[in-house]
Amino acid sequence: MPEPLRVVIAEDAAIMRDGLTHILTHRGHHVAAAVGDAATLLAAVDAHQPDVAVIDVRMPPAHTDEGLHAALSIHRGHPRTGVLVFSQYIETRYAAELLAGNPEGVGYLLKDRVANISEFIAAMHRVASGGTVLDPEVVRQLIGASRRADELAALTARERQVLALIAEGRSNAAIAAALVITSGVVTKHIASIFAKLGLTPSDSDNRRVLATLRYLQS
Amino acid sequence: MVTVTAQPARAGGRSPRAMLSSLLAGPFQRRAWAELAWLAATVPVAAAGFAVLVPLLLVGAGLAVIAVGVPLAAAVVLAARRLARLHLRLASVLLGESLPVLPPARPAQGLLGWTRSALGDPAGWRAVAYLVLRAPLAVAGAYVLVALWVYYGLLDLLAPLQVLYHQGQPGIHPFVLRAPDNAVLLTVRTVPGTLALLVIGMISLLAAPWAVRSVAIADRLLARAVFGPGRLAERVRELERARTRAVDDSAATLRRIERDLHDGPQVRLAALAMILGEVRESLHSVPLRDDDEDARVRALIDSAHRNATETLTELRDLSRGIHPPVLERGLAAALASLAATSPVPAALTVTLPARPSPAIESIAYFCAAELLANVAKHSQARRAAVMVTGRQGRVVVTVTDDGRGAARLVPGGGLAGLAERISAVDGRLTVVSPAGGPTDVTIDLPERP
User: Fold this and answer.
1) Considering the domain boundaries, does residue A127 fall inside one?
2) Which residue in A83, A181, B13, B284 has the most C-beta neighbors within 10 A?
3) For residue B230, is pLDDT > 60?
4) CB of A42 within 8 A of CB of A68?
5) CA-nearest residue of chain A to B307?
6) How far is the alpha carbon of A16 from chain B, nearest alpha carbon, in Å?
């Protein structure tokens, strides 16, 4: 059982805010504050210095991307607080803005992912410990739009699955669990992928994610 | 219960009595006074304009051989435009007429540009024509004002006073009625003669408003004939305004629907899916009893959870098709997201001096999306480019690809659908796509609908 997290939630829809607070609390985490707008969020993060802030993109007053700006500002000002941005839409542009600069401790998920609450909490843990989390939808769009289509075509179907999971920020163990294979096989796949794409292998999960993302976006 | 009252006077044409009463009431109506005020205001304006402009224009034309005359003529045209504007506004304000509106001139910078823009301005020349053609009307108006109102009207009514004033003096002082050229028309020395003058005066005053009205009507017809926008053009303008409103309204409505979906059903459904997910995990974490009922409940919850998440995906696609939220950040941001997800690598350049209206942004976005989707589906292109430029109130979106070309506007096809959508705001679609490529589709939209 991983450590309990100290969480600040920023979400303007009360039903989601309260539901998430209830479930997280029930599972032993500490929700230090649950707020409905960006200004209160910044104050709450200053006051509580949480492990992770879960932030909706669209919040009052303008309901456009206040949450994104707040997340970037928290990420700059509170490097020890992970920011997990969630939204009802995925915009690759938002993902690019979040990952520009230092992408450690940053996550971007579709709001739908709360439907699988254990995975959502796992993502919170990853972000809290300085990892990067990307929604499969973002990864799908990145791979779909990648200018490296020819090189990607050289991967086997299984390798492409593994590549996508790496880009989402999963660890070897998580990839093994997701694909129901052993971690030895995962290591083999990863070595093969990195060799085919000409990437430098790396032990750190996070550096591996960054290498992959940079590769896909270049 | 509805009571119907007969109205005989209006039932079958106007009775002679009604006509007489309206004739007699003429001078005492508000409208008559407004028209009189209008005439009194326009006569000096017209006189001044005619006296100054025509000679100057002639001099300008004469001097045109030496360069000085050209700017002079330009100044005259600009002045004529101002005067005509004044005339039209006087008529609009005092007569309450809906006359063509002459927008103020916008001369270009620099003497050369200024001269050229003034001389090349059709509205300015129309103003000159209007003032020249209006000259006889101005004369008629002045005549009506001076002769009918003052000379034959008010002065004649004063005749009895004069007779009374001079009563008892040796020899009645004659009341002399002169024509405008000062020729003696009538010399009245008797009481019956005075009474006759009184009658002439009253008739003049009764007739004067109708004469004024004739001048006003003639002026209005002239203004409409010269400045074009008659009823039809006015109607076109009205329809254009209505269309702009409709396009803007529908864009605003789509945005509202998207926002309502986002703040209502979507987030509620996400919360519901979260709770179902939690219930599902709780159920799965307790050991299954050897009991069909337990298995059935688990299956039901699993199915509900799956349905909720699938519906969320559908709702998101639906909502994005209505109005992509990233458009709130402007066309450039929205197109950047679009280009980033394009299966055929698409380079994007956006040069817009100002944000177009939301409706135009939305049309431009959906056109670019459709065109990029076409590129991916049909062109076999290796790369594409989206370029957006804004100039002179237009937004031009160009999507090019290096594919096999031969894209055609086929009735009922995707491009024809786009053309239709664009034409709703007076936009244009141009397809240049020779067989073998490259394809170049250009969409030219107004900045505002």
Assistant:
1) yes
2) A83
3) no
4) no
5) A115
6) 5
Looking at the structure, do residues A100 and A146 belong to the same domain, yes or no?
no
Domain end: A117, A134, A151, which one?
A: A134
Q: Are B275 and A64 an interchain contact pair (Cβ–Cβ within 8 Å)? A: no
Contact at CB, A93 and B274, closer than 8 angstroms: no
Which of B322, B355, B378 is a domain's end point?
B322
- Run of H or E including A86: strand A82-87
CA distances from A122 to A114, A119, A167, B280 (A): 11, 5, 16, 17
What does the mean pLDDT of chain A come to? 88
Count up the domains in chain B and report the number: 3
Instruction: Give the separation between CA B194 and CA B157, rounded to whole angstroms.
Output: 9
Structural domain that includes position B416: 328-446
Q: Mean pLDDT throughout B250-254?
A: 90
Q: Are residues A89 and A192 in the same domain?
A: no
Supply the CATH number for residue A165's domain: 3.40.50.2300
Report the pLDDT value the prediction gives residue B133, as an integer from 0 to 100. Answer: 84
The beta-carbon neighbor of B340 closest among A13, A115, A145 is A145
| Mean pLDDT (whole number) for A148-159 | 82
A114·B277 Cβ contact <8 A: yes
Residue B23 lies in a domain: no
Interchain CB distance below 8 Å, B325 and A15: no
Q: Are residues B41 and B152 in the same domain?
A: yes
- Using the CB atoms, write b or e for A146-183: b if 16+ within 10 Å: beeeeebeebeeebeebbbbbbbbbbbebbbebbeeee
Enumerate the residues of chain A whose CB falls inside 8 A of the CB of residue B262. Answer: 58, 88
pLDDT at B3 over 60: no
Which residues of B, range 293-312, sit inside 8 Å of A by Cβ?
305, 308-309, 312
Residues B276, B64: Cα–Cα separation, whole Å: 88
Q: Which of the pair, B123 or A49, is modelled with greater confidence?
A: A49
Range of A157's domain?
140-217
Nearest-CB residue to A147 (from B277, B316, B345)? B345
Q: How are strands ordered across the β-sheet holding A30-35? A: A30-35, A6-10, A52-56, A82-87, A106-110, A132-134
Q: Can you give the pLDDT at residue A48?
A: 95
Task: Mark yes or no for CB contact A89/B326 under 8 Å.
Answer: yes
Helix (H) or strand (E) holding B139: helix B122-143
Indicate whether this model's pTM tops 0.95.
no
Among A134, A154, A182, the domain-final residue is A134
Chain B residues with CB inside 8 Å of A117's CB? 274, 277-278, 281
User: B107, B78 in Cβ contact below 8 A?
Assistant: yes
- Record: contact B341-A16, CB cut-off 8 A: no
A18 plus A103 within the same structural domain: yes
Same domain, A87 and A39: yes
Answer whether A114 sits within 8 Å of B313, measured CB to CB.
no
Tell me the pLDDT of chain B averaged across its residues: 81
B308 and B351 part of one domain: no
B313 to chain A: which residues are within 8 Å by CB?
112
Residues in chain A within 8 Å Cβ distance of B310:
none
Q: Are B261 and B213 in a shared domain?
A: no
Q: Does the pLDDT of residue B53 top 50, yes or no?
A: yes
Give the per-residue pLDDT at B443. 94
ipTM confidence: 0.88
User: Which of helix, strand or coil describes residue B430?
Assistant: strand
Say whether pLDDT at B335 is over 80. yes
